[in-house]
């Protein structure tokens, strides 16, 4: 969900345009090296007065900081280009080292320095609206981190992950041809005719639904299966739809051959793709993820809950308005992830830099993000307490055997770490292996996530 709304975006564009003529105000912003400097500048005060509804929200003081950062960085932007998201623009010019520095910033002042360098790399031509949205998301997440509070969000919604994978996340849907048909309808073509025009596009991705009684004609542009396609493939679908709308004709067989091997989405490269009717475009997954399991004996508990009907009189019914129960368990979980980096690079058409960005973003998400189901009821917000990364050319192996016998007692984490470490050393000795590794342990404050990410991507 966008934080910076359309009316704020319009104000921001207008303010930036006026700033180009106000050299003194622009210079005061460009000289600012900290957020405090920005707050005292003439240029920021001008923007502040025009955007009360964006930043003046009780309990969300971080918005003020975000607006100050936006103003300071915007002062270095010469022209606005909204054809690509800010992160996608960065992907074209920023090295992996610079990107890792951007993702590692911890304070608003550090972020200001890194974003200024990013704007310079883009020669001052930036999507200001996308940049502002990203700054506001960063400040929101940073505020939540400082206050130990997290919203429920998907891994790909975290700003660092969005930056890393911008323009490279695929689309999974059974409505791809429907999107094409909608473009035709928006150009004035009848809905039934539009569905006929995109029939071959739908056939490219799977078996079309055939519902003669459907109330919505667009239903017959949908495929029975969900299809995972890359952004490049989706853009090709939309471009073809615009051409068909202009020429008022159906797609040909040749035009509808929209699947491609190049410019593959990172999630398809990681987790694969299977197309029964187009096996040539299947992608073998480079990533394998084991189900997590508890290292101790787990007892399933029952959460019995009631709800009171506030409008029900006591004389009507003395009982609760609702009764229910939910089963839950609490455990220290072990999980295992195996990635074939060579296959990942191959799936990404040899783009090793993108592969490393993918590994960095994926690993951070795996360490930080908990399953989102039932979070409002249980607030299961856990980061990894211990992690081990290994890399090498030997056949991969899990260390799940360390927990054939459940762990008991009050020191489960330390016991679990000792078991895994001992099993790893025993495996290496018996199989004459010596894999490079990096680990961290939160309880002992040993190692760091950053060192692990650098090790994985090296």
From TrEMBL:
Gene3D superfamilies attached to this UniProt entry: CRISPR-associated protein Cse2 (1.10.520.40)
Source species: Salmonella enterica
Protein name per UniProt: Type I-E CRISPR-associated protein Cas7/Cse4/CasC
Domain of life from the UniProt record: Bacteria
């Amino acid at each position: 969900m966008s934080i910076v709304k359309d009316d704020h975006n319009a104000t921001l564009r207008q303010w930036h345009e006026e700033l180009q003529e106000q050299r003194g105000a622009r210079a005061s912003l460009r000289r600012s090296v900290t957020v405090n400097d920005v707050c005292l500048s003439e240029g920021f005060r001008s923007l502040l007065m025009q955007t009360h509804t964006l930043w003046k929200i009780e309990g969300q003081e971080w918005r003020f900081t975000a607006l100050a950062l936006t103003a300071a960085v915007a002062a270095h932007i010469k022209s606005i280009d909204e054809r690509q998201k800010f992160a996608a623009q960065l992907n074209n010019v920023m090295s992996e080292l610079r990107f890792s520095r951007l993702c590692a910033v911890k304070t608003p002042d550090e972020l200001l320095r890194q974003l200024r360098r990013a704007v310079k790399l883009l020669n001052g031509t930036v999507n200001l609206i996308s940049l502002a949205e990203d700054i506001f998301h960063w400040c929101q997440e940073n505020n939540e981190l400082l206050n130990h509070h997290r919203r429920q969000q998907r891994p790909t919604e975290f700003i660092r992950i969005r930056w890393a994978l911008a323009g490279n996340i695929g689309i999974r849907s059974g409505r791809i041809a429907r999107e094409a048909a909608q473009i035709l309808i928006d150009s004035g073509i009848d809905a039934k005719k539009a569905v006929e025009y995109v029939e071959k596009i739908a056939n490219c991705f799977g078996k079309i639904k055939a519902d003669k009684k459907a109330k919505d004609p667009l239903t017959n542009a949908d495929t029975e299966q969900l299809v995972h396609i890359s952004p490049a493939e989706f853009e090709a679908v939309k471009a073809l739809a615009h051409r068909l709308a202009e020429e008022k004709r159906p797609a040909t067989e040749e035009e509808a051959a929209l699947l491609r091997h190049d410019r593959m989405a990172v999630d398809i490269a990681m987790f694969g793709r299977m197309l029964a009717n187009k096996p040539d475009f299947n992608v073998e997954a480079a990533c394998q993820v084991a189900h997590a399991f508890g290292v101790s004996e787990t007892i399933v508990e029952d959460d019995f809950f009631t709800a009171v009907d506030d409008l029900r009189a006591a004389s009507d019914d003395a009982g609760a308005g609702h009764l229910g129960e939910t089963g839950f368990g609490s455990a220290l979980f072990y999980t295992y992830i195996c990635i074939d980096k060579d296959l990942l690079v191959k799936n990404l058409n040899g783009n090793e830099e993108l592969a490393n960005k993918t590994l960095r973003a994926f690993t951070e998400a795996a360490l930080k993000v908990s399953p989102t189901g039932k979070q409002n009821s249980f607030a299961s917000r856990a980061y990894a307490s211990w992690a081990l990364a290994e890399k090498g050319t030997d056949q991969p192996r899990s260390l799940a055997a360390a927990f054939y016998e459940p762990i008991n007692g009050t020191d489960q984490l330390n016991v679990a770490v000792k078991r895994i470490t001992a099993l790893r050393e025993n495996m290496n000795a018996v199989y004459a292996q010596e894999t490079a590794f990096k680990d961290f342990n939160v309880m002992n404050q040993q190692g760091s996530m950053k060192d692990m990410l650098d090790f994985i991507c090296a």
